[in-house]
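Data deposition worksheet. Section B asks for the primary sequence of the deposited chain exactly as it was used as input, without tags or linkers unless they were present during the calculation. Section C holds the resulting structure in token form. Section D is free text for depositor observations; keep each observation to a single sentence. Incomplete worksheets are returned to the depositor.
Section A, Depositor: J.P.
Section B:
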Amino acid sequence: MFWTKPIGLCCGLCLLLFGADKTKLPALERADQTYKSAITKAQSEFDRAKAKAMEVRQKAYRDALAAATRAGDFDTAAAIKLAISEFEVNGELVTKRSKPKDLVKFEEHEYAVIREPLSWHIAKRVCEEMGGHLATINSPREQEFLVKTCLAAKTECWLGATDEHEEGKWFWVDGASADSTKFEVDNYNGSEHSIYCAIDGVFRDMYSGKRYAYVCEWD
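Section C:
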């Protein structure tokens, strides 16, 4: 009898936390959303910091290579070239790109449709190499602007939203939660985790390896 009440309370708590449908607990849902948003934002910041660090290292290696070549130290130069080649193989070689010339300004931001068809992840990287990011939506006015931009381009364009970390939980590349009610998503074959703007101006999900044009944004 002494243990009956504590055991009952413990079991009730376990059922509440683990047996119930978590989506019915708003506080836990909000905590999950906050966690995932923070992780996405931190990953984006990490990617930018890593790219900057790689750029500094890359410059040091190229400067050392030039110095060794000028000094006639060809063994050292060959070793440095090998190291630089390994950076490239490991995806740690930075490619700097210039902003496009035909930028469009909207509310203190700049945008460009890049017509070179790329997969979502490569398009994301290219935008970052140009100092920007895949376009995100933070207001109804910005959404309207991006729809008009995509319609004018007359081609499918990647945008910066993904649910690749957890199905159905959409986030922009800047870490902000994305309102999936603004998208038409069906996750066909369980493999569609990135958002593009279709030629009819509707935002839909698609397999990330599909090659589309893309919209870059500069804050």
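Section D:
The CA atoms of residues 52 and 94 lie 9 Å apart.
The beta strands are 104-106, 109-118, 133-134, 157-162, 171-172, 192-197, 203-207, 212-218.
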